[in-house]
Amino acid sequence: VYHGLDPQLVADQKNVAFDRLLIELQAVTEIALARPQATVRGKKSAKASGALLPVDAGFEDRMLRAVDALSTYRIGTSRMYREQPEGLRHVACATYVRLVRYYDKHRKCGLIESLFGSRARLPYTMFASAVFFTKTPHPDVVVDLTPLSRFTCEGGLWTCERVH
């Protein structure tokens, strides 16, 4: 990236993988929130508001993979998931959706922002431990590694805009 290298060279870096998972979680969250809430006997029920009814195994798998990958607790490797994967998947996804709705209604910022932070632009020292030095400043450039990660050089000073 620094000398005009292809940004795809860093595609397998942990930060890039994290950004992709966070983008996926945001996408499935928006889809889940756009779905109609579950009803009980024709009325919306506060207790049923997190249910993803009817069961959509494909969508729930997608959501659970994103939640599981970003979580410190690995639901997918748990004993309960091995014994009842469909049930745990459905309950975990419904619980996640209810938690997102709660945060949207009662908190200053949403669940994803509360857990992972918000986008911020901060100064960045490119190659902090490098053993080379160039007398001429790097030309102005903007490098988007992911939709959530952007490096900018303006006047030889680098900044990094990402979720912090």
What are the key terms here?
164 residues; alpha+beta; 2 domains; four-stranded antiparallel sheet; two-stranded antiparallel ribbon; 6 strands; 41% helix; 18% strand; elongated
Describe how the helices and strands are arranged.
Layout lengths: L13 H21 L4 E2 L2 E2 L12 H14 L8 H5 L1 H22 L4 H6 L2 E6 L16 E6 L2 E6 L2 E7 L1
Antiparallel strand pairs: 1-2, 3-6, 4-5, 5-6
Helix pairs in contact: 1-2, 2-4
Task: Tell me about this structure.
The protein has 164 residues and is α+β, with helices and mostly antiparallel strands. It has 2 domains: 14-116, no CATH class; 118-163, no CATH class. Helices cover 41% and strands 18% of the residues. It is built from 5 helices and 6 strands; from the N terminus they run αββααααββββ. The protein has helices at 14-34, 57-70, 79-83, 85-106, 111-116, and strands at residues 39-40, 43-44, 119-124, 141-146, 149-154, 157-163. A 4-stranded antiparallel beta sheet has the order 3-6-5-4. Strands 1-2 form a two-stranded antiparallel sheet. Strand 5 (149-154) and strand 6 form a beta hairpin. Helix 1 (14-34) crosses helix 2 (57-70) and helix 2 (57-70) crosses helix 4. The longest helix has 22 residues, at 85-106. The radius of gyration is 21 Å and the shape is elongated. It starts with 13 loop residues before the first helix and ends with a strand. The model has no long low-confidence stretch (mean pLDDT 87).
